[in-house]
Write a structure and sequence with these properties.
It is a single chain. This protein has a single domain, classed as ABC transporter involved in vitamin B12 uptake, BtuC, CATH 1.10.3470. The protein has 14 helices and no strands.
């Protein structure tokens, strides 16, 4: 496939993101005319239209965009760290730790702030646990880290199953929606946006070392890259991005796996292009998926994580077949 200039790609993805936001403002179970939507954007409009658009739809779209961007960035970093194209943000059990803590809070009837705090604490705790368990003689290796994460994630999945089996009927629906991804309670993602911007800036600056590290640790060390600090930064940043995303919207799969593949097919492997393009594409896709979740069976809302999985599975299989033919 012909590689496209970075400016053209970024401009196209920026247009896609803007279109996704506009579609989100126009779409929903409450019918609002195009004229009313445009009036709200001009600072006018009825109180109902202003409330629905400015306090419900646009904050939710912003949260979806930030979460999608965080998951796409985490997937990109994980694939560099593990040098495995099948790595995604949840491979090291980070989402499992968040899920266990969040489900415990939901089962105890605690409020949203405690659910978010528990999910964030659970994600970071599991990140530290996996890192500690994988650290053996001579430090940790990619294989050891990956295997440790898979084992811990499997254990957490068993705990999640037990929590669902033991949960009462009043909390079970909330647990299931959280596990499948839910943006219905998301507000303006101010803190999440700050984390996303800082991580994008950091790894855009570190794009050249990432390009070298993706080719192998030995080669990177020979070329003067500080491999160990860079690996720690990748692990900590990917875990942080995943923890913030899961705290905001629950478990949403496949974006971190599929989006980096889609971007690399067009941009190549230069992370100066991959990182910003992956963030824009991941955010836009999740906004569009959330619009579908709100409108396909309106007024009922579908869990957005279920839609991303339904879309992500065939799309990933298609990308794998395409990559095989290209190679």
């Amino acid at each position: 496939m012909t590689r496209q200039p970075a400016a053209v790609l970024l401009a196209g993805l920026a247009v896609l993101a803007a279109g996704a936001f506009i579609l989100s403002a126009f779409s929903g179970s409450v019918s609002i005319s195009a004229a009313d939507v445009l009036s709200v954007f001009r600072g006018e409009g009825s109180d109902v239209a202003r409330t629905v658009i400015l306090e419900l739809r646009l904050p939710r779209a912003a949260a979806a965009f930030v979460v999608g961007g965080l998951l796409a960035l985490a997937g990109t970093l994980m694939q560099v760290l593990l040098r495995n194209p099948l790595a995604d943000p949840y491979v090291l059990g980070v989402s499992g730790g968040a899920a266990v803590a969040a489900l415990l809070a939901i089962g105890m009837g605690l409020g949203a702030i405690w659910i978010d705090a528990g999910a964030f604490a659970g994600a970071l705790t599991i990140s530290l646990l996996v890192f500690g368990l994988a650290h053996g003689p001579g430090g940790w290796t990619t294989t050891r880290l990956l295997l440790t994460g898979i084992v811990v994630a499997s254990g957490l999945a068993a705990i999640i199953s037990l929590l669902l089996a033991l949960g009462d009927d009043t909390s079970l629906r909330g647990m299931l929606f959280w596990l499948m991804g839910d943006l219905s309670l998301a507000g303006w993602p101010l803190r999440s946006s700050g984390v996303l911007v800082l991580l994008v800036l950091l790894f855009f600056v570190l794009a050249r070392p990432l390009n070298v590290l993706a080719g192998g640790e030995q080669q990177a060390a020979l070329l003067g890259v500080a491999v160990k600090p860079l690996r720690i930064a990748l692990f900590a940043s990917a875990s942080l991005a995943t923890a913030v995303a899961v705290t905001t919207a629950g478990s949403i799969g496949f974006l971190g796996l599929v989006v980096p593949h889609m971007v690399r097919l067009v941009t190549g492997s230069d992370h100066r292009k991959v990182i910003p393009c992956a963030v824009l594409l991941g955010g836009s896709l999740l906004v569009l998926a959330d619009v579908a979740a709100r409108t396909v069976m309106a007024p009922r809302q579908l869990p957005v994580g279920a839609l991303t999985a339904l879309i992500g599975v065939p799309l990933f299989l298609y990308l794998m077949q395409r990559a095989r033919h290209v190679n």
